[in-house]
Amino acid sequence: MLAAVRDASHRRRVLDRLRASEARYRSLVEHMPAVTYLVRPDGAVAFISGRVSEVLGYPPEQFEAEPGFWARVLHPEDRGRVCAAWRRAVETRGRFSLEYRCLSRDGRAVWVLDSSVPVTLGGEPFWHGVLVDVTARVRAEEELRRSYELLQRVDAARRGLTTELVAAAEAERIRMAADLHDGPIQRLSATVLRMELATRSTADPALAARLAALTEEARDVIRSLRRVVYEAHPPTLDRHGLGPAIREHLREAAACHGFQVELEDRLEREPSPEARTIAFRLFQEALTNVMKHAGARRVEVRIASREGGVWGMVRDDGVGFHPASAESPMEGPTPGSRAGIGLMRRRAELLGGWLQVRSAPGSGTTVEWWLPVGETSPVGT
Description:
CATH topology of the domain at 236-381: Heat Shock Protein 90
CATH class of the domain at 236-381: Alpha Beta
Number of strands: 12
Helix content: 55-70%
Shape: rod-shaped
Strand content: 15-25%
Mean pLDDT: 83
Largest sheet: 5 strands, antiparallel
CATH superfamily of the domain at 236-381: Histidine kinase-like ATPase, C-terminal domain
Structural class: alpha+beta
CATH architecture of the domain at 236-381: 2-Layer Sandwich
Order of helices and strands: HEEHHHHEEEHHHHEEHEEHEEE
Distance between the termini: 108 Å
């Protein structure tokens, strides 16, 4: 009799532990931030946690009691690929993992991430899985994708506008250069010829000397105007490319101002016309500031293909300045202030690039920029 009592007591303790363990497991399952389930190979739901009612609005008993109910809640556009993926998992006795849509009880499309692995319970095959509602994440990704596509369209429009603005500006430069060449330069050249004739014709030495001096001044004006015409749109830029145009301009500047120059050209591909033009203008304006303000003895210029674009640098050993004081797009009121640093930066940014200036009084100046090249061609073509 005593042995029977002890045996019954032991059984009760074992059953109590089993019930407690089952209660803890069910509590864990029901409070998980996901749906857990157990599914047979034919798709019949053996168990599904109550969390499914929060995700899809259907009670778990409906999934367990109605054969094929799970397939019916699949979104019609996703049903085919989900069923095909499930068949492959069953045939290979492999893992099932897929992201797809279900239709909730109120008709909403709910995105879920469904992952399950094959298990054997009581000698029967099942798939034990977890279903997570990822609707918020998918919608955020879709919104991010739409924003990115909009940004791409805006960027394409900006690039198109930049191309038009650069083309219009260069067309205006060419028109002004042509007007100068065909107008003032031609008239001044004719005037120089008449003054030379008058100089040779006069018998008055004093008048001849004055005429000769005026003639030389007129020649200086013609040379200055021709330099303006050339700088407005150097033919070398279109004919031979960015590197040769920079080399030619740098050589002439060094001859006029007496500083030493060093040019390193590592350009592998010729930039698009608008990028080439802006890159040349940035170099040109940086060198103009060197000639006007730096008092430099040496100027170093670098251009190279870098990070999918064209990179350039102009460095001098001149007097330097405080960059923050030269960010205005126009000349400041202080005599000798550097012009156009802010305008140069905005010009680079308009094309999607950047420009940096590093300088300090007595330490020289470095102007560095990078521009996306757009449609390119090999250098020299």
